[in-house]
Write a structure and sequence with these properties.
The complex is a heterodimer. By secondary structure, chain A is α/β, with parallel strands linked by helices. Chain A has a single domain, classed as 2-Layer Sandwich (Transcription Regulator spoIIAA), CATH 3.30.750. Chain A contains 4 helices and 4 strands, in the order ββαβαβαα. Chain A has a 4-stranded mixed sheet with strand order 1-2-3-4. Chain B contains 5 helices and 5 strands. In chain B, β4 and β5 form a beta hairpin. Chain B is globular, with a radius of gyration of 18 Å. The chains are: A alpha/beta, B alpha+beta.
Chain lengths: 103, 162
């Protein structure tokens, strides 16, 4: 899974690209947290763009909540956008959207 | 003849992607929809991840995961039966383990939603586990059943148009 970020008008866009499972999550976590440390202080909010996520299992729930907590330390709210139908169902049933709304 | 396949893999994280892709590829003759394929891949991923993370833990010698699939043809569609077996430490309290949000690895960003997802995404789900012996997860999904209802309607339309 590749992760890249773009900051525009104090909004941090974090784009995930590839498959998110237990195996790929470790590196994704490290990369996303580096981005948080670099950009969070100058961001008003962070939006995780899932449009290029080709697969996500329940690992994605833990991943997103973990990043939510990370950004929360900087007072930066987190949103998700463009989940696939499958991912949407997982995030909906696990209640992730109550913490991390859809942008 | 009923189609089947049997796969034995090392319980390693890098096999999670291979396992779900292999099962999804096996299901292709049933012409599953993208959503059905995604459901199958997700359920298999959850079961295999459980074997990697929980059944054998992080021991240096990875254990084995056995994946058996069978296709039961019915009319235009069919049912995919999946059985995923490990020979690891087993689950002490199955009822607790399958409860939503329950996890034994709290500090690890684990959601505890694996079994709930398997149950939701598949039509049938059962689990048998014996401490120190291992765990068997059985799941089935009916595939292409919606189309069996649609196809006669399409034929009917053709007859009307002709």
């Amino acid at each position: 899974m590749r992760i890249c970020a773009e900051q525009r008008d104090n909004v941090l866009y974090v784009r995930l690209n590839g498959e998110m499972d237990e195996y790929s999550a470790a590196l994704a976590r490290r990369d996303a947290d580096r981005l948080a440390e670099t950009y969070a202080a100058t961001s008003e909010r962070a939006i995780f763009d899932l449009s290029k996520v080709s697969f996500m299992d329940s690992t994605g729930i833990g991943f997103l909540i973990g990043r939510y907590k990370k950004f929360q330390r900087y007072g930066v709210p987190v949103y998700v956008t463009n989940p696939s139908a499958g991912t949407d169902r997982i995030l909906e049933m696990s209640g992730v959207y109550t913490l991390i709304p859809k942008a | 003849m009923e189609n089947f396949m049997k796969l034995e893999i090392a319980a390693l994280g890098e096999n999670e992607s291979f396992a779900r892709s292999a099962v999804a590829a096996f299901a292709l003759p049933l012409s599953p929809s993208l959503m059905e394929l995604s459901d199958i891949k997700t359920a298999v991923s959850e079961a295999v991840t459980n074997c990697v993370v929980h059944a054998y833990g992080r021991e240096t010698d990875a254990g084995k995961i056995r994946i058996e699939c069978r296709i039961e043809k019915t009319g235009f569609g069919g049912t995919l039966h999946i059985e995923i077996t490990d020979f690891g430490r087993g689950i002490d309290d199955v009822e607790k383990a399958i409860a939503p949000f329950y996890t034994t690895l709290k500090g690890d960003e684990r959601s505890g939603m694996g079994f709930t997802i398997m149950q939701t995404f598949m039509d049938e789900f059962s689990i048998e586990s014996e401490p120190t012996k291992g765990t068997v997860v059985k799941m089935s999904k009916r595939i292409g059943m919606e189309r069996t209802a649609e196809i006669p309607r399409a034929e009917e339309r053709e007859r009307v148009n002709a």
